[in-house]
# Entry
Amino acid sequence: MAISLHNSTNIPRVGFASPFLGSNSASKVSISVSLNSFSNLSFKSVETSRQQLYRISAMSKAESSSSNQVKVDISLSPRVNSVKPSKTVAITDHATALAQAGVPVIRLAAGEPDFDTPAIIAEAGINAIREGYTRYSPNAGTLELRTAICHKLKEENGISYTPDQIVVSNGAKQSILQAVLAVCSPGDEVIIPAPYWVSYPEMARLADATPVILPTLISDNFLLDPELLESNITEKSRLLILCSPSNPTGSVYPKKLLEKIAEIVAKNPRLLVLSDEIYEHIIYAPATHTSFASLPGMWERTLTVNGFSKAFAMTGWRLGYIAGPKNFIAACNKIQSQSTSGASSIAQKAGVAALVLGYAGGEVVSSMVKAFRERRDFLVKSFGELEGVKISEPQGAFYLFIDFSSYYGLEVEGFGKIENSESLCRYLLDEGQVALVPGDAFGDDSCIRISYAASLTTLQASFERIKKALISIRPAVPV
Ligand SMILES: Cc1ncc(COP(=O)(O)O)c(C=O)c1O
# Structure
């Protein structure tokens, strides 16, 4: 959709492609903005001012009905304007569109397992429909599922909860957003180690809180330096978000490091921790998972998030949950009661079936983890032999976050300059037809994320394509 901003009297008409809206010319809309205060501003500053204004009076009309103008105020809330759209979703959609147009793109951008939901879980969902479990379920989730979650958390994570300390949602994403909305007040700071999962900073913004990004180093396996954390805690710090195993780096926080972080957190009564453990089961020995809430003194201030999407290959079922002290969980429940209500009754039956598969998902999950590990080993070895790349071997999840920054600054004939992670991804899509996600989406522009939720054969083919595309331009400064 192309959009033009213009003032009918004295502001020149300016066209731009909206990153929010794609570029479908069939649905062209033009917006008339009556903003005389913009008249002396450049387009860039107009855009900036646009973000800052509380409301903008904007009128739209469909171009196709030029004679019969229907004027509609299409302005958006400043909250929405402050949020960036998800780059992973944008790239996945773009690659899908290319594939649908017949371009043989290999898609390694999405964050979902390539496996089907295990049959035994899927059957439980089918049976739920057959048996009439098709009505609204309790807002916080069925007692059956919350009881199964309590059992899992006790047995696998060493943390005790009662069902009223659990809220089941439509995916862990909803659980996280609700938690951030429940505990953050305007102006609060949310501490997020980078590289981070794309949604954390945006969720903080949605809560009118300020994301405070703490960089980590590839040489430290992208793990947060406790001293850096300590020096960034202020009286405004309300929430620290930890993700282990991590998306996008695959790093796993060792227990000793978590203990150090816990000691720092314990000194700050206002500071809570959201521990995103959604990749918990996708972990490669000898790495082990530690739940932050299991550490001394941390239960009272930790919100543990987990879900079914990754380990159980259930992304489409939309099922996740949060566990924590009752007052915080009751607040999450209240938000959910006024937005989506309970998760799908069918998915919840499938969730129960997933949780009774055995410790850490039993054989069903361990066979998928075995395949992920094989792929990780292949990619780490292959990319490790490429000139000009730095890798930290992932200990969990199904992503590789590779530093390709030695390729930045190169001028490529017929393409232009590779300036950053985004242009390198564009180059690799154009030249190698492999879709990857630029690291700047995760707060680290030196890297690119490769999802290895694809068959080994597909990964071998993608590696060859990437290698060919990179070899033809060679790194400017060998690392
Ligand atoms: C780190 C992390 N947390 C949470 C989620 C949300 O998962 P879902 O909403 O599918 O349960 C994702 C999905 O990509 C993720 O990578």
